[in-house]
Design brief:
heterodimer; A: 286 residues; alpha+beta; Ubiquitin-like (UB roll); N-terminal domain of TfIIb; five-stranded mixed beta sheet; three-stranded antiparallel beta sheet; 12 strands; globular; B: 607 residues; alpha/beta; Glutaredoxin; Rossmann fold; 5 domains; 13 strands
Chain lengths: 286, 607
Amino acid sequence: MTVTELGIPRRLLEFTIDGQAVRAPEGATILDACRAAGKDIPTLCEGDTLRPKNACRVCVVEVEGSRTLVPACSRKAEAGMEVRTGTERARHSRKIVLELLASSVDLSMTPQVAEWIKEYEAKPDRFGPDAARLNEEPRVDNDLYVRDYDKCILCYKCVDACGDQWQNTFAISVAGRGFDARIAVEQDAPLTDSACVYCGNCIEVCPTGALSFKSEFDMRAAGTWDESAQTETTTICAYCGVGCNLTLHVQDNEIVKVTSPHDNPVTHGNLCIKGRFGYQHVQNRD
Amino acid sequence: MDLHFGDSKPTDEERAAIDALLGPPESSWEGADRSDADLRWARGGREARDRRDLLLPGLHAINDRVGWISDGALDHLCRRLTVPPAEAYGVATFYSMFSVKPRPATVLHVCTDLACAAAGASELCAGVEARLGLGSGVHVERSPCLGLCERAPAALAIKAGDPVRTAVSAPATVHEAVLAASSPDSAPQEPPAAMAVPQAGDPGLTLLRRVGVVDPSSLDDYRSHGGYAALRRAFALGPAGVIREVTDSGLVGRGGAAFPTGRKWQATASQPDHPHYLVCNADESEPGTFKDRVILEGDPFALVESMTIAAYATGAHRGYLYLRGEYPRALRRMEHAIAQARARGFLGDDVLGQGYAFDIEIRRGAGAYICGEETALFNSIEGYRGEPRSKPPFPVEKGLFGKPTVENNVETLVNVLPILTMGAEAYAAIGTEKSTGPKLFCVSGSVERPGIYELPFGATLGELLDLAGVRPRLRAVLLGGAAGGFVRPDERDIPLTFEGTREAGTTLGSGVVMAFDDTVPLPRLLLRIAEFFRDESCGQCVPCRVGTVRQEEALHRIAERTGAAAADDIALLREVGRAMRDASICGLGQTAWNAVESAIDRLGAYE
């Protein structure tokens, strides 16, 4: 039986979003309240299993009395707050953020970005052909996963998942500063020389496809990756007694990728190397 | 924490540098030779991790001794402090004064920022680079503002060793800069700090009255010039009384944000969570700002005393002085002053026999403008990358080490001394109704007598410029530094107050007043400002990380263009600038477009 945590009852705060009265439990963020009210705000660095980092600034909204725009993902709702999500000012910043990212990073594998670019009429090309880009090559230094930092928006989610929020391995960090900042292990070495334990929990949270299974990376390179032909089956990991949920992504009767449901109350989408990458025996037909 | 280390070993020198800071390792787990005792030795959990704040001093120790940070040294430091090497690498690569790649032991920082650029920094740089090529044993680094604007162009040589040697050459010629770099010990002495104060010795001065008058190394001299009278008054008033005086005085922060100091102190003092911390922000890195340096070098005991008062009022027993890494003389003076004060009972377990304990620790920055942002500074002290935190929570509630913290700029703190000695009422009578007290202005550029000027709030820009002897053919004045704004030469009537500059649509910022004549093309200055922000952005949020790059690219494109040819890019700049101002996490991104915008709108830079 799954025990659903109810927690202690929380006070409801009353405030307004776009003039409409809403109530949200104390501690909820503006984003939580917006989603509960059925308002869609784009997010990139926000992760359902991680503390908000508010680095991407694509979720900014206007809050009455605040000099600057406010990140919806991290700002806690307060009673009496007047939040406006669709003002010209907020939309302008979102548009520019999308343009800045799309003009410097490969967002081709980031879900929903194409829609948002259209919705906000963002024109990433207008910075000209000489606009600086990340210009990173994919790093293929192990058999399990690939780091393609040309797709990295520096959302810090992998760092947080590897660090004190989940894995406590601390194999990666942001190194360098400003536009030259990159996710790296110490001395920017190959992963095989680092503290990485290949749990793949960074892949689980990466929003842009910068981190991907080697199997997925190779199939994409070969042009054989076809998500529409894949099935997803959630099962239980057979390795140890913890009983983590695994979601097997299967294409042509082969497991091509393993994820884990984020709403699992015990593991929150985290696995270890065995659950994440140790599936070869399942399809060993000899 | 299960840490993973590589195979690289530190050299004996690197090991010695780290051990000199942290003491010898206690066990092979920390890098000592193996012994049987290791089987019964453990340092884990909080005890191990709580030393994370020694990471930055540790990196300094290695860099000071060897000139760069090797894998072996970084690993050894991580082992000693239980810090994951990846995180330490992230921290080491954050600061511009560190290098994780081999480089010569001597680094010559040549300032190429605004005041120095106008004084011929590019020729200096080219000359120095030609003389100090590969194999010269000196690495030449083009640097943002070194805080020596009154003696532009400036260069700072740092020669790693035991001890590390430094030499300042300002105003620098190619020959002098090369000499400073090749033999820092025999380079000519820097002129005394009072040389930066054209008004030095004027009895009408309040904040600067001791600069050039007292011996900055003598506590007795400080006391014989009124030193420690304010602290005695503070003890007589009690903490609440001090806060009341400071609140009544109308003192607001001098670092640029102009937040009421009394309110900040009150908010910190009333926090139930303990301990409380005091942080003095001496990471003065705004281009054109050098006022804190002059106080630190010329009247160091004043800062020790005012920090003691601030800590007493807010219930803190530990103060951190975060000093910018490019100020070696200020560091020496402050170290000496703190040691003297400690030896004489002005710091320590029982300050002045009043049963109040307080001590100050100096932490050096390592070349990061962003660390002047209050929450980035906390992260820097704690041994993390100096990235700003999102607010709320505010520092008064959760600041350094997550505890209630009051953080003040050097100039703000030293204002507390006259407030207590002359009383809030008399202090508030100086200046205007909304901007009370005296203010320090950092005047540089195209003036006869550049330096720090102390004027009561309310003096006009014209009065200040006349005092400094502004040269003819003035083209523009930059107020507030790179994060500030340009005004026209005919706007001499702008009152130099917080409300006056705001009304005039500009900012006072940290008190920078930089005059430019028409020999320096404005687009080149704007480009330098844009480069500055691009270099100094921490990279955390998108609007600033990429926006500052796009801003610089656009300014490059229009550097030689005007009118319609520049119109598209100016429109682009406006759009990007607006998003940076609205959506960046901290003040750096929010102000990165200010100066450029003001140059376009007020000066017609591209018309």
